[in-house]
Amino acid sequence: MPWDTIPESVLRDVREKLSKIDSRILDGQVKIEDRYCIASGAYGVVYKGLYNKSIVCIKIFKSRYIDIVSNADSNMISRLIHEVKVWRLLKHKHVVEFYGWLLDLRSPEPPSPSLVSKWCEHGDVRMFLRCRPDADRQALICGIAQGIAYLHSEKIVHGDIKPDNVVVDKCEVPKLCDFGASCFLSESSFVLELISVKTLYYAAPELSIYQDNAHRGMESDVWSFGCTAMEILRKQMPYCSTPGEAIFTAIGKKRPPFELKPSELSAVERVVIRCLEYEKDDRPAITALINDLINPREEGPIPFSEVLKLETQNRKGRWASRSQFHAQLSGTVCERPHCSIQRGTYNDTKKVRIKILRRVTPISNEKMLRNFIWEFLTQGERWPWADDSSPVAKMQGWELSIDDRSYLDITLISDWYPNGDIKTYLADCPNADANILVRDICFGLKYLHDRGIKHGNIKPTNILIDGGGRAALCDYGLSELFRDLPTKFQSVRYTAPEHLICDKDVFPCSYEGDIWAFGCVSTEIYIGQQPYCTIEDETEILKDKPPAYTADIVQPIGNTEICDCLNARPEERPSLDDVLDSLD
Fold it and tell me: Which residue, among 452, 428, 422, 449, has the nearest Cα to 520 in the 3D structure?
């Protein structure tokens, strides 16, 4: 039934409940100034009005028909009562001032309960910035943070921080509004039962994924503040490239709302980004951020060990949990100029392979280190891990460290392969089935390519053999990761000819180059001769660029697809699917 025909007993009950909470009843004292609403949300519409000859903001609850049995409408009334209960207590520069409530407002809307507050001339912060793109954005987010800090000091959680709920007054002071989703810390579980609507793009992951049993808290406010502040600074929404139907998937996969390299962040943004830790316990208190937001520290001489700690902590998920992994070295398997391979154990039982890449690159400044860590972790997130059923060597963990001369060392820990690399294995088992080994390698390479990973350094020492004599690729993606570094991890003998002509110290990576290297390794497995077998000095390969194998050497293999992998024209090399078909 319409609001104006509600039984007097029901109307009296609503009025009585509100009166007990707040005595500022404004019936008959407020009128609508403009018949057009200026904003609309899930629960209410906003009009510009007059009260005591001053312009005010009038929020009219949308419910046009109040059914005393309806859960939705009982929730609406409960939300109204709760918003008054919270809002009436708040007095702060960065919180919109509450004037009172009324039930009999004459407006273009059907009669409905309304809340009256101070008018903020510039509208919400998004609208303000469209009109004033040169505004002081740092001052805006500092003000928002101070408003949230005030709420938290009063043991109140806002619950729905987003640009729509931040308004800007005529002095360009930002103020928090809309306390319908707010709660006192002591009753957060009760409020969640009443309120089921939240803005997903700004909601903390624990509220988005575990909606049924999660509690709004100070930590979820901090996340929402981080999203709002980054939008103000970056001029783009969180998850801006993710359509609505895919947002749950993005959050479930722990995708950050803003995918930015550390080098792209300003000093203020580096403070704000701390709010966007996936695990709520890792987010800072809002009060801990305010000084840093007001006086953000520009890049300076932070000890590299501290940068490592901060940057690896900032990438949560499987990487962070793996970083707690400890392996015990038990013997050196191979020692090379820039790396060593060790045998070790994990949890005192599981055997693992530990590859230590030494002095990968000199670190000359914090920015360079942050960029490398970002690249390293981004690349690593695509690698197959121990719980992945992939046909390649599985990663178990990693470690980054800086030596006393500011060089970066990287330790990669993967499954142990008892038969060593394929070269060692074939020396011990010359009668092994070459077709099975080549097929394993091809299958593993296709697996990587299907996931957007270029191996970049396929050679016998990067192919391991398990206890059953099956091959698995290892050290995938490292060459692409280190493409701009002075340390060279690639072998000239297995590098595609189109990459040998580049003028860089490190050869580029490509899918076609991987297929060439696969052809070289496969040919070596079949005939027992490495590429350019008559050339000892690799500089001659770079200078003269002869064929890796002559036609008479590869002809006995009898597989044209394998031979075509060595085509000098990359576009004419076969696909890995065609190679696999030829091996069946």
Answer: 422
Identify whether the C-beta of residue 162 lies closer than 8 Å to the C-beta of residue 227.
yes
Among 133, 113, 114, which residue's Cα sits nearest to residue 57?
A: 114
Distance CA(449)–CA(265), nearest Å, equals: 31
State whether the Cα torsion 245-248-250-253 is positive or negative: negative
Considering the entire predicted model, what is its pTM? 0.55
CA distance 352 to 529: 30
Separation between Cα atoms, residue 558 and residue 552, nearest integer Å: 11
Query: What whole-number distance in Å separates Cα of residue 265 and Cα of residue 262?
Result: 5
Instruction: Enter the tokens of residue 422.
Output: 């394929």
Amino acid making up residue 201: Y
Span 411-446, pLDDT tens digits: 778 888 999 999 999 999 999 999 999 999 999 999
What are the angstrom distances between the C-alpha of 356 and each of 339, 401, 428?
5, 11, 26
Element (H, E) at 47: strand 44-51
For each of the domains in the chain, give its residue range(s) and CATH number, in order of start.
3-118 (3.30.200.20), 125-298 (1.10.510.10), 304-416 (3.30.200.20), 419-584 (1.10.510.10)
Measured CA to CA, the distance from residue 360 to residue 477 in angstroms comes to: 15
32 forms bridges with which residues in the sheet? 49
The burial class, CB within 10 Å (0-12 / 13-18 / 19+), for 553 is middle
Longest dimension (CA), the chain: 103
d(CA 154, CA 416): 55
CA dist 478 and 339 (Å) reads 13
CA-closest candidate to residue 163, choices 104, 233, 113: 233
Burial (CB < 10 A; 0-12, 13-18, 19+), residue 104, is middle
- 397: tokens are 């963990």
Residues 6+ apart with CB under 8 A from 569: none
pLDDT band at 282 (very low <50, low <70, confident <90, very high): confident
Our CA dihedral for 68, 70, 75, 76, rounded to 10 degrees, sits at -70
Residue with tokens 């891990």: 385
Cβ-contact 202, 238 below 8 angstroms: yes
Kindly report the backbone phi and psi dihedral angles of residue 240, in degrees, each rounded to the nearest multiple of 5, phi listed first: -65, -25
